[in-house]
Amino acid sequence: MHIPASRLLSLLLIPPVLGGVLTWSALSAWAADGAAQVPAALLTPARTAGEAPAMEDLPFYRPELAGRYGACQAAHPDWTAARSVLWVNMGLDHPFYTGTDTVEQPDSLTVLVNKYRLLPADYAPQVESVGASYGSGSLRPQAAAAFRAMADAARADGISLRSVSAYRSYARQESTYNRWLSQDSQASVDTYSARPGASEHQTGLALDINVASLKAHFEDTPAYAWLAEHCAEYGFILRYPQGKEHITGYQFEPWHYRYVGVEVAQVCMDRGLTLEEYFALRPAQEEEPEAAPEAADPEPAQTESAAPAQPVAPDPQPDPDLPMI
Ligand SMILES: [Zn+2]
Question: 101-261, what's its fold?
């Protein structure tokens, strides 16, 4: 792990509140993903729960969002301060695709791209083929190497993992989103297809593995079980989990994995956090996580099919059966 000890410490030991030391375990329990996972003490109205922290004492309180926190509390008087702060940190106090920002560091390996954070239209990462024996498509070199290493490890366990869709350009996302829009209502399309600029596939860090259809029930396969257990070891997360639809804005996609590096992946997968929750729970004073150096990633097995980085090839024709997130 190439993370300064001081930063690692700040990630794991956040200033004490509630009379104890906050850890990722405690923080993740605060994730605003429904009442069931929020500690009972925090669910009681903040004004009457003596031990509940004030908003300003929360490690992930961001002063610049104070007005929105207040509005969220006013709209949801039964919510705790923690729940309101996390909700606003994720942008969920605005409808999807409103209050959007343009991603400033699109090359970061931990870049958050969603319905509030859009990639610039001219962003085109350097990508390389995953290699013919690993399926189709291209990824950024770190993600491609990590996927090959993961697929090799799975193969040793008798599991086949193949890329069926990886990098997509802005133009391709635009055309595919518009194609869906010609067949379905926008409200429905938005649950399974990203608007141009909002697709993780445009980062070159996300791919669909083996299938890309709910009807395939990938979640019932040994490959899905293997990924659930091992994907974080290779720096990947299940990006659109079941039960987090209100946070990600997308239906469950058991086949869609995102490379974020091993450190972040292990926190997210161990704690059941989406990438949105991971960033919302970060202490306000922390800087954006740096892109993990390549040396921190799993060493990929050298294979003949590992193509060198190359300019992006023209987009292949869209496969009508592929999802478009
Ligand atoms: Zn996908």
Answer: Muramoyl-pentapeptide Carboxypeptidase; domain 2 (3.30.1380)
Residue ranges, CATH 3.30.1380.10, the chain? 101-261
Q: Which residues are near ligand 1, the ion (C-beta closer than 5 Å)?
A: 208, 256, 325
Q: Could you read off the pLDDT tens digit of each residue along the chain, which spans 325 residues?
A: 344 433 433 333 333 333 333 455 555 555 543 333 433 333 334 444 455 678 888 989 999 999 999 999 999 999 988 999 999 999 999 999 999 999 999 999 999 999 999 999 999 999 999 999 999 999 999 999 999 999 999 999 999 999 999 999 999 999 999 999 999 999 999 999 999 999 999 999 999 999 988 889 999 999 999 999 999 999 999 999 999 999 999 999 999 999 999 999 999 999 999 999 999 998 876 555 554 444 434 444 343 343 444 433 434 443 444 455 6
Q: Which residues are bridge partners to 206 per DSSP?
A: 258
Spacing, Cα 194 to ligand 1 middle (Å): 10
Taking the centre of ligand 1 as the mean of its atom positions, its distance from the CA of residue 255, in whole angstroms, is 7
Whole-model pTM over 0.85: no
Which two three-digit tokens encode residue 15?
């200033």
In DSSP notation, 100-136 reads -EE-S-TT-TT---SSSEE--TT----BEE--GGGBS
CA 224–ligand 1 middle distance (angstroms) = 15
Residue with tokens 């209502």: 185
Extract the runs of DSSP E, i.e. beta strands, from the chain: 14-17, 20-22, 101-102, 117-118, 128-129, 138-139, 163-165, 206-209, 236-238, 256-259
| 300 burial type by CB count under 10 A (0-12 exposed, 13-18 middle, 19+ buried) | buried
